[in-house]
Amino acid sequence: MNVLFCVFSGTGNTRKVAARFAEELRALGHTTSSYEIKKGAPMPELEGFDLLIFGYPVHAFNAPEIVTKFLKKFPKGSLPFYLLRSEGEPSKLNDAAGLAPKRILQKKGYSLAGEFTVVMPYNILFRHSDKMAVRMWQAAEKRIEHGARLVDALGGETKKVNLIRRAAAFCLRIEHPAMPVLGKTFHVNAKQCVGCGKCAAGCPTGNIRMEEGRPKFGGHCVGCMGCAFWCPADAVRISLLNPWRVNGPYPAEGDPASDEEICRYLRKMYTNYFHESEKL
Ligand SMILES: Cc1cc2nc3c(=O)[nH]c(=O)nc-3n(C[C@H](O)[C@H](O)[C@H](O)COP(=O)(O)O)c2cc1C
Q1: Is the CB of 87 under 6 A from ligand 1?
Q2: If you measure from the C-alpha of residue 151 to the centroid of ligand 1, how many angstroms do you get, rounded to a whole number?
Q3: Residues 206 and 246: beta-carbon distance below 8 Å
Q4: 134-143 pLDDT, tens per residue?
């Protein structure tokens, strides 16, 4: 099969997961191409593809608005598609993040073949330990290998979302109108900012422009956290969300967390997720 990955990634987790997934599919004899979802980018050309995989992170139990807006503009078609999500915690509440993309794509004629979810370290809320990040990546690799085998056979499962989880996700969709407003009040600590422009260059909506060597934040923020996460000087302040800011990449290699070293927050959920992944 010729597979097109359409990926949105704020801080690199989903991009990394999708790239590893593509690598696995190529090892199984398929060809892959990758398209990055960014504001203003031309739509991908779909001719010659047999399968679509849409990759994106979970934002407040939902698909990021940049993704749903992209899908609304996506051309009609009849190809099978998969959803591939990265999320910070292995919670069923996150499954609601598939609802809008599925609805939009199915309405356009595409047929859902399955959904995959992979836990990756938080880019907001709190910083997972390096050991947790390593164990997450090891679990992710297992899930990706398993997922690629399913895609190879056009198999897979879809997530059922009960009413309570739908309602929770619906309430948190407030994030979509809130982020552009909140994002306008993002700023940098002038003493720390080195004026490198990485935040502006990496912003998926072009919301940050450099003025006299300092970033200025506009009204099109989608809350991806790329600016705060990748700032080499940890100078970006994310307004009301600042207490939950996470800065700097996680390692993928090194000692993984043992069961005893799994974070206390949602410990049972992470432990079950790791054990299930390791059995795949
Ligand atoms: C605004 C925002 C909201 C988030 N909400 C959730 C959430 O509801 N559930 C969850 O498990 N992770 C949540 N996360 C964490 C990300 O989904 C996770 O770290 C993901 O791997 C980031 O992928 P990326 O690097 O491709 O952007 C959120 C992250 C951001 C920035």
Answers
A1: yes
A2: 24
A3: no
A4: 999 999 999 9
